[in-house]
Amino acid sequence: MVAPSFIRARRSAMFIPGDRQSALRKAETLGSDVVIFDLEDAVAPAAKQDAREAVRAHFAAAPASPVERVIRINGLDTPWGTEDLLAARAAMPDAVLIPKVESADTLLAVVDALEQTDAPDMLRLWAMIETPGGIVNAATIAARGREAGVPLACLVAGTNDLYKATGLAGPGARAHAHPWLMQIVLAARAADIAVLDGVYNDHRDAVGCAAECQEGAQMGFDGKTLIHPGQIGAANAAFSPGPEAVARARRLVAAFAEPQNEGRGVIAFEGAMAERLHLEQAEALLARAARIADPDRQGKEPANADESLSHAHGN
Ligand SMILES: CC(C)(COP(=O)(O)OP(=O)(O)OC[C@H]1O[C@@H](n2cnc3c(N)ncnc32)[C@H](O)[C@@H]1OP(=O)(O)O)[C@@H](O)C(=O)NCCC(=O)NCCSC(=O)C[C@H](O)C(=O)O
Ligand SMILES: [Mg+2]
Q1: What Pfam families does the annotation carry (predicted)?
Q2: How far apart are CA 293 and CA 85, in angstroms?
Q3: Sign of the alpha-carbon torsion through 253, 258, 262, 264
Q4: Tell me, what's the pLDDT at 115?
């Protein structure tokens, strides 16, 4: 499958605490593909109401944005979740991010709650996978989340909560978590939805952040969640096809188009075997590069949710 050129890039998804009222507007201008307005863990209990109101006011004042906008609500099993969901429903972001999703039932509960509102048009949902139960059930969550009525578009790894819940600690924690992260990637790919890596907490460590962005790209994530504007450049670079990869993809497409290769399933290309699946990968990479180079395309989402979620890769 070749990636349609309208699929949004989600290389960088920056969290901003919802109660940082004065910074909300600026956050959308700093170069990340996605801004996630957080009502959950970045907001203290006493500030939940203010954060909800600040995000609501921000969306009312600026109904459109050049970036994809996501609101992370508190879980429906908390004292704030239902109010958050109603506020998000009114704001109409591109998606609502549900924290600590442990089973598809969590998503179905959100859908039920939305259906009880007087304007139940379905919002896209994103799901944080950040608990042991969420990892164990990731494939079912992603698969059932794509069934009719649950418009799940993206899984997001929550490494802080995952480390907390499992006891993983120390400098080697991420290496130990690799199998779990790959389970999230695999679950998303099997369901043909997007998947984002967890945050890098040390926002003053540019080298470490860049290395983790590169690693996330190699692991198959579409992008990385971020906590600070200083991390956006590293994520955008790591999750964009590089110039050498683009040049090679163009040569591969040209090679398959040569008359002597017409109809062939496999060719020798620059000393290695290239099959038609590699051609599709090269075409997907070129489509992604074109999309990133032309930010106007970011806004062109099709009406058909299935099309917009359709996915292909070619880093
Ligand atoms: C980490 C921070 C608390 C650091 O804040 P601060 O010390 O104020 O940063 P700076 O002084 O370097 O800020 C410089 C300017 O940049 C703006 N800024 C900072 N962070 C953001 C941001 N996230 N979005 C937009 N703008 C930002 C400042 O306002 C300064 O601007 P100016 O005054 O105009 O110069 C802080 O960065 C922060 O709060 N980050 C986000 C934290 C957050 O949202 N956490 C929740 C998500 S992480 C998570 O929970 C993932 C998952 O659930 C898991 O379990 O892992
Ligand atoms: Mg979390």
Answers
A1: HpcH_HpaI
A2: 34
A3: negative
A4: 84
* Contact 134 CB / ligand 1 (< 6 Å): no
Tell me, using a 6 A CB cutoff, whether residue 198 lines ligand 1.
yes
How far from 288 is each of 48, 183, 239, 245, 282, CA to CA, in Å? 38, 24, 10, 12, 10
159 lines ligand 1 (CB under 6 A): yes
Residues of the chain short of pLDDT 50, as ranges, are: 1-6, 299-315
Q: Which of 97, 196, 228 to mutate to test the pocket of ligand 1 (most atoms within 8 A of CB)?
A: 228
Q: Whose CA is nearest to atom 26 of ligand 1?
A: 27
Contact 68, 300 (CB under 8 A): no
Q: Residue 306 has what pLDDT?
A: 37
* pLDDT at 4 (0 to 100): 39
What is the fold, at CATH topology level, of the domain defined by 12-238? Answer: TIM Barrel (3.20.20)
Task: Provide the 8-state DSSP code for 44.
Answer: -
Q: What does DSSP assign to residue 5?
A: T
Q: Domain ranges for the chain, please list them.
A: 12-238, 243-309
In this prediction the pTM is: 0.93
What pairs with residue 156 in β-bridges?
128, 196
Q: Ligand 1 centroid vs 60 CA: distance in angstroms?
A: 23
- Calpha distance 302→66 (Å, rounded): 16
Is 28 known to sit in a ligand binding site? Answer: no
Q: What is the pLDDT of residue 25?
A: 95
What is residue 120's predicted lDDT score, i.e. its pLDDT? 55
- Altogether, the residues listed in the chain come to a count of 315
19-49 pLDDT, tens digit each: 999 999 999 999 999 999 999 999 999 999 9
Q: Tell me the pairing of strands 124-129 and 95-98.
A: parallel
DSSP-derived letter for residue 259 is G
Interface ipTM: 0.98
Q: Is 11 annotated as a binding residue?
A: no
How many CB atoms lie under 10 A from the CB of residue 169? 10
E strands in the chain: 12-17, 34-38, 68-72, 95-98, 124-129, 152-157, 194-197, 223-226, 266-269, 272-275
